Amino acid sequence: MKIRFMKKADLEGAASIHKLAFIRQKNSFEWIQCNFNAFPRFLNFVAEKKGEVVGYITWVQKSGFRPEAVIELEQLAVLPNFQGQGIGRKLINESLPLVKGQLLLNGSTLKHILVTTRADNFAQQLYKKTLGAEIETTIKNLYSADEVLMIARNVSI
Asked: Among candidates 143, 147, 150, which has minimal Cα distance to 129?
């Protein structure tokens, strides 16, 4: 399993994963493509296994390019038949140093990480364990249900 920056050739595979993971969203290819095209604000990575994209993660710099960056783990998804194998954890753990390296290239360090997710999403435990993120607040009926805002504070390198 290899975690690496997303390439243009990965867009179709990542869009297929998006379509399966986020069923209430539409235009998966366009969504993934516009995020890919927004580099370096959006930093996209894939998990590749035997030449197949089996997962992706998108990190976003918030509120401008700052000396101490606040980033959001914007999306994380893994193909259904690869879930439960630690790929989500690996995407977080192996892409985050690459994110920090990209920030350094732009003269920034990482300060905080934001995550928003549905209040009923089991991935909250993953974000807590891997990032140390804690729930700050619940936002009622934001998208399709209640969302929680989680923050991992003071994660600078």
From this structure: 150
Name residues whose C-beta falls within 8 Å of residue 142's C-beta, 6 or more positions apart in sequence.
Answer: 116
pTM beyond 0.90: the answer is yes
Give me the architecture of the 2-152 domain, per CATH. 3-Layer(aba) Sandwich (3.40)
Provide the phi-psi class of 114: left if phi over 0, else alpha when psi is between -120 and 50, else beta: beta
- Locate 10 and state its tokens: 């990965």
Distance CA 40, CA 67 (A): 15
Confidence of residue 157 (pLDDT cuts 50, 70, 90): very low
The pLDDT tens digits for 23-71 are 999 999 999 999 999 999 999 999 999 999 999 999 999 999 999 999 9
Look up residue 3 and give its DSSP letter.
Answer: E
Domain definitions of the chain by residue range: 2-152
Q: Which of 96, 102, 111 is nearest to 39 (CA)?
A: 102
H-helix segments, the chain: 11-21, 28-37, 87-105, 123-131
Collapsing DSSP states into helix, strand and coil, what is residue 1? coil
